Amino acid sequence: MEATAPSVTVKDASSGKGQGLFADADIKKGAFVAEYTGTKVDSKEADAMKSKYLFEIDDEWTIDAEHGGSVARYINHSCDPNTEAEIVDLPAPRPNTFFVYVIECENGAMYIGQTQNLLKRWNEHTTGRGAEYTSKYRPRGIVHSEEYSSREEAVAREKWLKTGFGRKWIKREIKAGRLPVRSTQTGARQAGGRIIISAIKKITEGEEITIDYGDEYFDEFIRPHGCRCGAKKHH
Ligand SMILES: [Zn+2]
Fold first, then answer.
1. What confidence tens digit (pLDDT) does each residue in 48-61 have?
2. Cα of 46 to ligand 1 centre, how many Å?
3. Cα of 227 to ligand 1 centre, how many Å?
4. Has residue 61 been placed in a domain?
5. What pTM, to 2 d.p., does this model score?
6. Could you tell me if residue 233 is inside a domain?
7. How many structural domains are present in the chain?
8. Which residues are near ligand 1, the ion (C-beta closer than 5 Å)?
9. Which residues span the domain enclosing 47?
10. What is the C-alpha separation between 62 and 54, in angstroms, rounded?
11. Are 187 and 113 in a shared domain?
12. How many angstroms is it from 77 CA to the middle of ligand 1?
Protein backbone atom coordinates (compact mmCIF):
# COMPACT_ATOMS: atom_id res chain seq x y z
CA MET A 1 0.00 0.00 0.00
CA GLU A 2 1.38 3.34 -1.01
CA ALA A 3 1.96 5.65 1.93
CA THR A 4 1.78 9.41 1.69
CA ALA A 5 3.22 11.83 4.18
CA PRO A 6 0.93 12.00 7.18
CA SER A 7 -0.46 15.49 7.68
CA VAL A 8 0.04 15.40 11.44
CA THR A 9 2.93 14.38 13.64
CA VAL A 10 3.49 13.71 17.34
CA LYS A 11 6.37 15.55 19.01
CA ASP A 12 7.36 17.33 22.21
CA ALA A 13 5.12 20.28 22.95
CA SER A 14 6.20 23.41 24.80
CA SER A 15 7.54 23.05 28.34
CA GLY A 16 5.56 21.02 30.80
CA LYS A 17 2.98 19.79 28.34
CA GLY A 18 4.61 16.54 27.29
CA GLN A 19 3.90 15.48 23.75
CA GLY A 20 1.52 17.18 21.39
CA LEU A 21 0.10 16.79 17.92
CA PHE A 22 1.36 19.16 15.22
CA ALA A 23 0.30 19.98 11.67
CA ASP A 24 2.78 18.78 9.03
CA ALA A 25 0.98 20.76 6.35
CA ASP A 26 -1.63 23.50 6.27
CA ILE A 27 -5.06 22.23 7.32
CA LYS A 28 -8.11 24.03 6.01
CA LYS A 29 -10.88 25.30 8.27
CA GLY A 30 -13.52 22.57 8.48
CA ALA A 31 -11.15 19.81 7.38
CA PHE A 32 -10.88 16.46 9.08
CA VAL A 33 -7.91 16.27 11.47
CA ALA A 34 -8.20 12.91 13.21
CA GLU A 35 -10.62 10.52 14.74
CA TYR A 36 -10.37 9.73 18.44
CA THR A 37 -10.27 5.96 18.55
CA GLY A 38 -9.62 3.36 21.21
CA THR A 39 -11.43 0.83 23.31
CA LYS A 40 -15.06 1.49 24.18
CA VAL A 41 -15.66 1.37 27.92
CA ASP A 42 -18.66 1.97 30.14
CA SER A 43 -18.72 5.64 31.20
CA LYS A 44 -19.41 4.69 34.82
CA GLU A 45 -16.35 2.43 34.88
CA ALA A 46 -14.26 5.05 33.09
CA ASP A 47 -14.47 7.36 36.12
CA ALA A 48 -12.46 4.85 38.12
CA MET A 49 -9.91 4.14 35.40
CA LYS A 50 -6.36 5.41 35.55
CA SER A 51 -6.07 5.94 31.80
CA LYS A 52 -4.91 9.42 30.83
CA TYR A 53 -6.69 9.17 27.52
CA LEU A 54 -10.41 9.09 28.13
CA PHE A 55 -12.94 10.79 25.92
CA GLU A 56 -16.57 10.59 27.01
CA ILE A 57 -19.07 10.14 24.19
CA ASP A 58 -22.14 10.16 26.43
CA ASP A 59 -23.38 8.81 29.79
CA GLU A 60 -23.14 5.31 28.45
CA TRP A 61 -19.87 5.14 26.51
CA THR A 62 -16.35 6.47 26.85
CA ILE A 63 -13.39 5.89 24.54
CA ASP A 64 -10.15 4.83 26.22
CA ALA A 65 -7.37 5.73 23.80
CA GLU A 66 -4.62 4.18 25.89
CA HIS A 67 -5.44 0.87 24.25
CA GLY A 68 -5.70 0.96 20.47
CA GLY A 69 -5.86 4.71 20.39
CA SER A 70 -5.04 6.97 17.47
CA VAL A 71 -2.76 10.02 17.39
CA ALA A 72 -5.74 12.14 18.42
CA ARG A 73 -4.95 11.31 22.04
CA TYR A 74 -1.89 13.57 21.84
CA ILE A 75 -3.96 16.68 21.20
CA ASN A 76 -3.41 19.08 24.11
CA HIS A 77 -5.92 21.38 25.70
CA SER A 78 -6.27 25.02 24.75
CA CYS A 79 -8.75 27.64 25.92
CA ASP A 80 -8.54 29.04 22.39
CA PRO A 81 -8.41 25.78 20.38
CA ASN A 82 -8.11 25.26 16.63
CA THR A 83 -10.16 22.05 16.48
CA GLU A 84 -13.38 20.68 17.90
CA ALA A 85 -14.83 17.23 18.32
CA GLU A 86 -18.13 16.01 17.00
CA ILE A 87 -19.84 12.76 17.94
CA VAL A 88 -20.92 11.02 14.78
CA ASP A 89 -22.90 7.84 14.27
CA LEU A 90 -22.46 5.52 11.32
CA PRO A 91 -25.40 4.38 9.20
CA ALA A 92 -27.06 1.19 10.36
CA PRO A 93 -26.90 -1.85 8.09
CA ARG A 94 -29.94 -2.18 5.81
CA PRO A 95 -30.97 -4.77 3.23
CA ASN A 96 -29.31 -4.30 -0.17
CA THR A 97 -26.92 -1.65 1.07
CA PHE A 98 -23.19 -2.05 0.59
CA PHE A 99 -20.62 0.43 1.80
CA VAL A 100 -17.31 1.25 0.21
CA TYR A 101 -15.08 3.05 2.67
CA VAL A 102 -11.70 4.71 2.83
CA ILE A 103 -9.70 4.73 6.06
CA GLU A 104 -6.73 7.02 6.45
CA CYS A 105 -4.03 5.29 8.48
CA GLU A 106 -1.49 6.92 10.73
CA ASN A 107 1.28 6.54 8.14
CA GLY A 108 -0.84 8.48 5.66
CA ALA A 109 -1.83 5.45 3.60
CA MET A 110 -5.43 4.94 2.50
CA TYR A 111 -7.02 1.58 3.31
CA ILE A 112 -9.98 0.85 1.04
CA GLY A 113 -12.61 -1.79 1.69
CA GLN A 114 -16.28 -2.67 1.35
CA THR A 115 -18.77 -4.09 3.83
CA GLN A 116 -22.45 -4.43 4.68
CA ASN A 117 -21.94 -3.32 8.27
CA LEU A 118 -19.80 -0.22 8.42
CA LEU A 119 -19.79 0.21 12.20
CA LYS A 120 -18.89 -3.41 12.90
CA ARG A 121 -16.10 -3.24 10.34
CA TRP A 122 -14.85 0.07 11.70
CA ASN A 123 -14.73 -1.30 15.24
CA GLU A 124 -12.71 -4.24 13.94
CA HIS A 125 -10.23 -1.93 12.26
CA THR A 126 -9.77 0.32 15.31
CA THR A 127 -9.15 -2.64 17.60
CA GLY A 128 -6.62 -4.32 15.31
CA ARG A 129 -8.92 -7.12 14.13
CA GLY A 130 -9.95 -5.61 10.81
CA ALA A 131 -6.98 -6.29 8.58
CA GLU A 132 -3.29 -6.91 8.90
CA TYR A 133 -2.58 -3.48 7.46
CA THR A 134 -4.80 -1.51 9.85
CA SER A 135 -3.51 -3.46 12.84
CA LYS A 136 0.01 -2.36 11.90
CA TYR A 137 -0.84 1.19 10.86
CA ARG A 138 -3.61 2.43 13.11
CA PRO A 139 -6.62 4.04 11.47
CA ARG A 140 -6.97 7.79 11.87
CA GLY A 141 -10.53 7.78 10.66
CA ILE A 142 -12.97 6.97 7.91
CA VAL A 143 -12.34 9.79 5.49
CA HIS A 144 -14.91 8.70 2.94
CA SER A 145 -17.80 6.31 2.43
CA GLU A 146 -20.24 5.57 -0.37
CA GLU A 147 -23.35 3.38 -0.57
CA TYR A 148 -24.31 0.92 -3.29
CA SER A 149 -27.36 -1.28 -3.74
CA SER A 150 -25.48 -4.37 -4.87
CA ARG A 151 -22.32 -6.16 -3.81
CA GLU A 152 -21.10 -6.15 -7.46
CA GLU A 153 -21.24 -2.36 -7.69
CA ALA A 154 -19.48 -1.95 -4.36
CA VAL A 155 -16.74 -4.40 -5.34
CA ALA A 156 -16.24 -2.65 -8.69
CA ARG A 157 -15.96 0.75 -7.01
CA GLU A 158 -13.58 -0.64 -4.38
CA LYS A 159 -11.43 -2.06 -7.16
CA TRP A 160 -11.31 1.27 -8.97
CA LEU A 161 -10.49 3.24 -5.81
CA LYS A 162 -7.56 0.91 -5.24
CA THR A 163 -6.02 1.75 -8.62
CA GLY A 164 -3.49 4.55 -9.04
CA PHE A 165 -6.24 6.72 -10.55
CA GLY A 166 -8.57 5.98 -7.65
CA ARG A 167 -5.97 6.79 -5.02
CA LYS A 168 -5.09 10.02 -6.81
CA TRP A 169 -8.78 10.93 -6.90
CA ILE A 170 -9.11 10.32 -3.14
CA LYS A 171 -6.07 12.47 -2.34
CA ARG A 172 -7.26 15.28 -4.59
CA GLU A 173 -10.74 15.27 -3.06
CA ILE A 174 -9.36 15.26 0.48
CA LYS A 175 -6.99 18.11 -0.31
CA ALA A 176 -9.85 20.11 -1.76
CA GLY A 177 -11.93 19.38 1.34
CA ARG A 178 -14.65 17.75 -0.76
CA LEU A 179 -14.76 14.26 0.72
CA PRO A 180 -17.40 13.88 3.39
CA VAL A 181 -16.00 12.62 6.67
CA ARG A 182 -19.32 11.06 7.51
CA SER A 183 -21.97 9.31 5.56
CA THR A 184 -24.61 11.83 4.51
CA GLN A 185 -27.33 9.31 3.74
CA THR A 186 -30.55 9.64 5.67
CA GLY A 187 -32.21 6.72 7.40
CA ALA A 188 -31.56 4.69 10.47
CA ARG A 189 -28.29 5.25 12.23
CA GLN A 190 -26.45 2.90 14.46
CA ALA A 191 -25.18 4.51 17.62
CA GLY A 192 -21.49 4.28 16.87
CA GLY A 193 -20.13 7.13 18.86
CA ARG A 194 -17.27 7.96 16.56
CA ILE A 195 -15.41 11.05 17.68
CA ILE A 196 -14.42 13.18 14.72
CA ILE A 197 -12.01 16.05 15.25
CA SER A 198 -11.95 18.79 12.65
CA ALA A 199 -10.37 22.20 12.24
CA ILE A 200 -12.45 25.21 13.33
CA LYS A 201 -9.91 27.62 11.88
CA LYS A 202 -7.06 27.39 9.43
CA ILE A 203 -4.11 25.55 10.96
CA THR A 204 -0.74 26.37 9.44
CA GLU A 205 2.18 24.00 8.96
CA GLY A 206 4.10 23.47 12.19
CA GLU A 207 1.31 24.75 14.42
CA GLU A 208 0.20 22.68 17.41
CA ILE A 209 -3.25 21.15 17.11
CA THR A 210 -5.38 21.86 20.18
CA ILE A 211 -8.85 21.23 21.52
CA ASP A 212 -10.88 22.54 24.45
CA TYR A 213 -11.11 19.70 27.00
CA GLY A 214 -14.30 21.19 28.43
CA ASP A 215 -15.33 22.80 31.73
CA GLU A 216 -15.50 19.63 33.78
CA TYR A 217 -12.01 18.43 32.88
CA PHE A 218 -10.61 21.95 33.16
CA ASP A 219 -11.95 22.52 36.68
CA GLU A 220 -10.76 19.16 37.92
CA PHE A 221 -7.33 18.75 36.30
CA ILE A 222 -6.14 22.04 34.84
CA ARG A 223 -7.37 24.88 37.04
CA PRO A 224 -5.64 23.63 40.24
CA HIS A 225 -2.21 23.93 38.54
CA GLY A 226 -2.98 26.87 36.32
CA CYS A 227 -3.51 26.65 32.56
CA ARG A 228 -0.42 26.87 30.36
CA CYS A 229 -2.19 26.85 27.03
CA GLY A 230 -0.91 30.20 25.83
CA ALA A 231 -4.31 31.70 25.10
CA LYS A 232 -4.93 35.30 26.17
CA LYS A 233 -7.98 34.35 28.20
CA HIS A 234 -8.44 31.08 30.06
CA HIS A 235 -11.62 29.28 31.06
ZN1 LIG B 1 -5.86 28.04 28.92
1. 887 778 888 877 78
2. 25
3. 5
4. yes
5. 0.71
6. no
7. 2
8. 79, 227, 229, 231, 234
9. 8-88+194-222
10. 7
11. yes
12. 7
